[in-house]
Amino acid sequence: MPVKETPAAYPVIDTDPHFTRVIRYMRPSDYAVWGGATAAGPGLFWLYEQVDPTKASRAAIRSSLRLTGFLGFAAGFMLAYQNSSARFWGWKENSAEVTKDQAELSARAAAGQPLYGETELTPYLQGVAARNSTFSQLKLHAFPW
């Protein structure tokens, strides 16, 4: 079953990029978004605590700050991952990624390796996996797995 064609302003690199590839292709701006979201969680919590104090103990405030820090870290990662994926899909400017992808795939082809790795799955299961994961990054806010 062919992948649905979507309009893209830039060249499409891969409609179903592997997790490690998306991480490897992250830009410094993605890491900045990730760090900003990580800091925003505890920062906003602390600000709200200053504006409208809960009169909770210092230990409870520390625990809450740790929790909001973790939630900000997770949310920032998902946002950065989604931004990086959008460049694979051609929805955002991706000239650096196109160059890196061409160099990576050319090196694999020159070494005689398959471009996207080997699999032990049957063609049917490959199709099932592709249908379940293509564009799955768009739902990270609902199903963060």
UniProtKB/TrEMBL annotation:
Pfam family, one: NADH-u_ox-rdase
Domain NADH-ubiquinone oxidoreductase 21kDa subunit N-terminal: from-to ranges: 9-93
Superkingdom of the organism of origin: Eukaryota
Domain spans labelled NADH-ubiquinone oxidoreductase 21kDa subunit C-terminal fungi: 104-145
InterPro entries: NADH-Q_oxidrdct_subunit, NADH-UbQ_OxRdtase_su21_C_fun, NADH-UbQ_OxRdtase_su21_N
PANTHER family: NADH-UBIQUINONE OXIDOREDUCTASE 21KDA SUBUNIT N-TERMINAL DOMAIN-CONTAINING PROTEIN, OXIDOREDUCTASE 21 KDA SUBUNIT, PUTATIVE (AFU_ORTHOLOGUE AFUA_4G04750)-RELATED
Protein name per the record: Uncharacterized protein
Organism the protein comes from: Kwoniella dejecticola CBS 10117
